[in-house]
Amino acid sequence: EVLQNHVLEAKVFHTEYGTGVAILTGAHRFSLTTNIDDLKLRRMPEVPGLQKPPSCWAVLSQDRVTIVLLAVGQDLYLLDNTSCSVVVSEPRRVSVGSRAVCSPPHSLAGPFPCPPAVPRAALQPPALAGRSFPLLSHGQACTAGTPGPILARGKEVRIEWAQEASQEIFKIASMAPGALLLEAQKEYEKESQKADEYLREIKDQKLLPEAVSQCIEAAGYEHEPDTQKSLLRAASFGKCFIDKFPPEGFVRMCQDLRVLNAIRDYQIGIPLTFTQYKRLTIEVLLDRLVLRRLYPLAIRICEYLRLSEIQGVSRILAHWACYKVRRQ
What pLDDT, on a 0 to 100 scale, did the predictor assign at position 159? Predict the structure, then answer.
């Protein structure tokens, strides 16, 4: 079949067995091997009615299961070893773009291109049935059968495992203290009396400190600056009604988010999640900026965080000087 119809497109992916390759033939059929060193080509089931190449497709290999995810028009199909299943179809539309990508196997968080709006649909592919992963997209909770394949349409957002605080605030009809505080702040900006009602409900339950902490924590896991600001404004609003609320956590979160937003800029291109940033530590992040020769940004971060000269500016200037000398 490959000789007769040729290869329209191929994708390389990694598996537990080694390096795999998947191909799309001119007959619009998929074939793949999970290990090019032990070549055993397997043809995937046919997609009903597929008369032209899919808009985009990707391969996901995890736990010794390899599947192909492809978009045809507004429909999303999943191919496993034995069947072709419709994962998302009308009326739950998924915006389709030019490419699809998969996260590294077993990764906890990372940057993925995805559409501007991911529907709150439970995607349960047969090969991964029973495994649901809570995700966040633009401040809204959704559930997906696998965190790997994400569709793209020219706009990059970051998807990560939804932490408890984020789930509590953004799940539908949530009555969590953080969710109520966020609504109270929004109503306050509208000069609505509902703000007092929401706030009173939280205070009557003596959950205002928890509500503020939830909003601060959830802000760290958001990637859209507008959503970050909304959560932090809610936290700041709630703090006004608490005696002696410790400000350190709020201030630190503002600092962390400012650093994260700076390195996530497309001109810098280090789209770390909050969890990755904390595990990486600021020292390692500065080392990465130095390796990329982003000395001005590294120095500004050091000055903003008020790091010691030995740990921060002086060390970076020393690297810069060595780099300039080597270029002479």
Answer: 52
